[in-house]
Amino acid sequence: MNNDRRAGISRRRFLGGGAVLLGGGLLAGRAFAQQGCPVTQGDILGPYYRFGAPFQSRLAGPEEPGERLVVSGTVYSADCRTPVPGALVEIWQANGAGLYDTEKPGNYTDKGNFRLRGMLYTDAQGKYRIETVMPGRYPVPPNLPGLEKYGGLMRPAHIHFRVIDALHVPVTLQLYFKGDPFIAGDPWAHERTTNIIELEQDAEQRRGVFDIVLARGFQ
Ligand SMILES: [Fe+2]
């Protein structure tokens, strides 16, 4: 977890608890929780999802061209503090040149070789970690039904996630990277504030922390 995110969560916990202690009661506590502990925002599935990716957290081996990237994080329940173990996390992305393993949009059931795709379960602490490469940017393909007006628009770099747990509402999302100049003009990225993370870089790789907060499937 990066420092900003960690500080943010600590602050939220403090404020959430404080609201109740100061006599605001349950309603005030909930209001704070809603403000300071947002559920991770959903996003479009996109045209390059394929069903049935292999179970692996190392999406890219050393032979994959590109800049090494490690993303890790925790899947939390809606209170932002209860980890969700055993959540199914599905991940897919373009390669460093902005190409998916199948360049056919809508090719959901193709069972050919999966590349830069994987599934994993969060561990007992709700944590996950993937090793991959930085995804390249690519333009929205032309003539996608419903997205015709965006055809050719260059998208910011992103990694797709789908997170499923039995007691929570599944979320499909795209992870974006702070500082990408294409975020502002992207109709999906620009308002997905919970899904934009900062990356740190050392001599070997970029690293980022992306925590995911799921809405509860029951009250
Ligand atoms: Fe994509």
Kindly report how far apart the N and C termini lie: 28 Å
* Strand-residue proportion: 15-25%
CATH architecture of the largest domain: Sandwich
Radius of gyration: 18 Å
Q: Give the biggest beta sheet.
A: 5 strands, mixed
Structural class: alpha/beta
Summarize this structure as a short list of keywords or feature phrases.
single chain; 219 residues; alpha/beta; Protocatechuate 3,4-Dioxygenase, subunit A; globular; binds fe (ii) ion
Task: Give a description of the structure.
This protein has 219 residues and is of the alpha/beta class. The protein has two domains: 1-37; 39-213, Protocatechuate 3,4-Dioxygenase, subunit A. The chain is built from one helix and ten strands, in the order αββββββββββ. Strands 1, 4, 8, 9 and 10 form a five-stranded mixed β-sheet that branches. Strands 3-2-5-6-7 form a five-stranded mixed β-sheet, with no helix packed on it. A hairpin with a 6-residue loop joins strand 5 and strand 6. The radius of gyration is 18 Å and the shape is globular. Bound molecules: fe (ii) ion (FE2). Fe (ii) ion (FE2) is lined by residues 46, 48, 158, 160.
